[in-house]
Specification:
With 363 residues, this protein is an alpha+beta fold. It is built from 8 helices and 20 strands. The chain binds adenosine-5'-diphosphate (ADP) and magnesium ion.
């Protein structure tokens, strides 16, 4: 098959195991995003795909060829790093042309590819400039242009926007999304810890934690149906509220008692055998809303109200001691510190996790 196949990929540095067996199939043309906390192995995995790190165990296949022992230059891969590493004494044109000159491409072919990359990235006005005469965002576009010129089968990005300020990040992210459309046959693998980048760019997100895959799926699938507590709390911002409790009633709906004695009904089925087990229930800040009625999910005192203009964030003393429940309400909501309020959520939007942190299936 074309694309990329990782079979039980492992990596150790000396005695220390950092990647514990990754199985992943990536289709040609897919945009895959690796997310996960710092140190979970995202860069290591990417560098193994690029051939910049030895593979300790398992098999790596690119376009039907096992590449474990194929050097980086023969893998048909281009990589863009967080630091752009341009040659300071070369113009933008020469920076982009350099790799092709080394590879002995003809002058015409070099010119064709540089011109095309410059046009995709709107770099035409800057081709004669030196890197020092460019902004950070423009420099990163040159680094991306240089990678495009290699005409790679697989394009790897390791946190390429993390050195840019907020506005440039957005602009360059949109460039990368366009690039992905224009290079529809090129597989892209992108590492980030930025949620918005992951959600907006990815065809599928791979959530990693401590060298293992927690879940792979399209962005909204991870958001709506996280496989476990880790993914539930990693995807979405602010993170999902989690409240530990015990299963009181099983059946098509499940009733959980929380530590403060309150009860919550979720539209998720559980088996009779699960009665009495520890479980936690989860609700996203944006799935909660205020009510003045007598039926409510929980009641609590507002400890902090943050007005962000587009949304209001409330931190409320909820059913779990010392762990405020976060509520995200659209727009400006007039709430003051110290007020006691009631909150509801659509029972369809509640999540239920077992004592091992796995999501109860059934939806
Ligand atoms: P991420 O990119 O997700 O932040 P990395 O892939 O850089 O994580 O690192 C994964 C783990 O491997 C970390 O614990 C890191 O300390 C370790 N590591 C990375 N490179 C080396 C190395 N050259 N030698 C030893 N340990 C390393
Ligand atoms: Mg990294």
């Amino acid at each position: 098959m074309t694309g990329l196949v990782l079979k039980d990929i492992r990596k150790s540095y000396g005695q220390v195991k950092v990647i514990h067996g990754i199985d992943l199939e990536i289709q040609q043309g897919e945009f895959i995003v690796f997310v996960g906390p710092s140190g979970c192995g995202k860069s290591t995995l990417l560098r193994m795909i690029a051939g910049l790190e030895d593979i300790t165990g398992g098999e790596m296949w690119i376009d039907g060829i096992q590449v474990n022992d194929v050097p980086p230059s023969k893998r048909g891969i281009a990589m863009v790093f967080q630091s752009y590493a341009l040659y300071p004494h070369m113009t933008v044109y020469d920076n982009m042309a350099f790799g092709m000159r080394i590879a002995g491409e003809s002058k015409e072919e070099i010119d064709r590819r540089v011109t095309s990359a410059a046009s995709i990235l709107q770099l035409e006005p800057y081709l004669d400039r030196l890197p020092k005469a460019l902004s950070g965002g423009q420099r990163q576009r040159v680094a991306i242009g240089r990678a495009i010129c290699r005409d790679p089968k697989v394009f790897l990005f390791d946190e390429p926007l993390s050195n840019l300020d907020a506005a440039l990040r957005v602009a360059t992210r949109i460039e990368i999304a366009k690039l992905n459309e224009q290079m529809a046959d090129t597989t892209m693998i992108y590492v980030t810890h930025d949620q918005v980048e992951a959600m907006t760019l990815a065809d599928r997100i791979v959530v990693l934690s401590a060298g293992r895959i927690e879940q792979v799926g399209p962005p909204l699938e991870l958001y709506e149906r996280p496989a476990n507590l880790f993914v539930a709390q990693f995807i979405g911002s602010p993170a999902m509220n989690i409240m530990p409790g015990k299963i009181e009633e099983t059946g098509d709906n499940t009733v959980i008692s929380l530590r403060d004695g309150s009860r919550v009904t979720v539209h998720i089925p559980t088996q009779a055998a699960e009665k009495g087990k520890t479980a936690s229930f989860g609700v996203r800040p944006e799935d909660l809303s205020m009510t003045t009625g007598d039926t409510y999910l929980f009641e609590g005192k507002v400890s902090i109200a943050e007005q962000l203009g587009e949304v209001t964030l409330l931190y409320v003393e909820g059913p779990v001691e010392d762990e405020p429940v976060v509520i995200k309400l659209p727009g400006v909501v007039d709430v003051s510190k110290g007020e006691t309020l009631r909150f509801v959520a659509d029972p369809e939007k509640l999540h239920l996790f077992d004592d091992n942190g796995r999501t109860y299936l059934g939806r």
